[in-house]
Hints:
The structure is a homodimer.
Chain A: H1 3-7, E1 10-15, H2 19-30, E2 35-41, H3 44-50, E3 59-62, H4 71-81, E4 86-91, H5 96-105, E5 109-112, H6 117-128, H7 136-149, H8 160-170, H9 175-181, H10 186-200, H11 205-214
Parallel strand pairs in A: 1-2, 1-3, 3-4, 4-5
Helix pairs in contact in A: 4-5, 8-10, 9-10
Chain A binds a DNA duplex (30 and 30 nucleotides) through helix 8 and helix 10.
Amino acid sequence: MAAAGINKNIEIWIIEDNVSYRRTLLGLIERTKGMSCSQVFSSCEEAINKFEDADAPEIILLDIGLPGMSGIQGIEKFKTLSPQTHILILTVYDDNDNVFEALCAGASGYLLKDSSPEKIIESIKEVLAGGAPMNMKIAHKVLEIFTRFKPKKNDYGLTEREKEILQQMVAGLTKQQIAEKLFLSFHTVNTHLKNIYNKLHVNTRSGAVSKVYKENLL
Amino acid sequence: MAAAGINKNIEIWIIEDNVSYRRTLLGLIERTKGMSCSQVFSSCEEAINKFEDADAPEIILLDIGLPGMSGIQGIEKFKTLSPQTHILILTVYDDNDNVFEALCAGASGYLLKDSSPEKIIESIKEVLAGGAPMNMKIAHKVLEIFTRFKPKKNDYGLTEREKEILQQMVAGLTKQQIAEKLFLSFHTVNTHLKNIYNKLHVNTRSGAVSKVYKENLL
DNA sequence: AACCAAATACCACGAACGCGTGATTGATAC
DNA sequence: GTATCAATCACGCGTTCGTGGTATTTGGTT
């Protein structure tokens, strides 16, 4: 596995539009034994062009927020052009969508830009060793995403009627509208709502709706 | 919760049927400063019983291949009994199914038994810091699982600021609370909220929150 | 320099909400 | 046979929301 590091340098490309950060990365790579950065780009498009007359690198350090084609789109393109190339995301975005999309698209790791230089070097090695380096924060998000795939049946002891009312609330209806739709008195809906709040340990509509989705109730 | 490490030891339970490995773990924990293992079990059932007359621990080190109830089932049970308890899987199984199920069920981390003692201690700390420690191998499998999914994405031209405010609303905060949290005037939040409603074509908090989840905004 | 979108801030009003406290009925359980 | 609990309905109080406005500042385009 580490064979590459013995005879020749690990070939790395950098795609990063921020000039100073790009320079920082380049410096870091170049002064690390066993690694070398032959190409730097500020957009995916440029890198894609280079694939024609240059050998594919072993690693691409890739930003997500890029001018033109986004890093996410880039991943897919690079993976088609050179499936064996590992792509290590290095970005400021840590929202669930970007993380999810990047990993779905085939990224081999996901780091945030506040990672220390040592962490970055270490992660590159980890990728080559078949790992999947991630920030603590990112790893946590990954698990969060996982738990969403598993329908929890944590009822909180909600009654059928309460669930019914919760559904209407999730749909965005007001208490009065719910009452009309379910042929109830406004006061009844009010009471149910209070009980729901108690059971779910929330005290706002948004909190309740949020809990419904997060924990897959109903 | 993070204050726990300052004044008292991190409370850890071990559930592991292999006597010698259990002893190894126990020894490791007990000789680590700031951690203490008050309970060891060889099955989930025993641990579940103890939940009644003992305080829930901060961490459970959990094996998967157990007599009786499997570790996977155990996770769900423990998470119901004590949602704030972190469960760290420590097992020999590294097949996709077990990994996937465990993480779906709510495990906070997944280590293989060949992990070094230092790695285990480090992982416990990482879990408490909100991370999700995984072996290189496991992390790689997690990414593999991810590549099997491929969803959509949507945006209603929401501003970054608007998304930020939407996030707080999803968390169940009131306008006033959001204003305080983001160091804004109440009126500003109000304005943003109006714009958000317009963009999402809703006119209630619940409707907005609902849309966020249904269409995977943020 | 002109322009524009985004972020910020303010006001006022009627509608809706959250919450405490209460009651009545009917079914199920012990 | 009485205890429990879901479901229904009721009132009032103070708070928050949704919506109609207006307006300033700022950063980026043109």
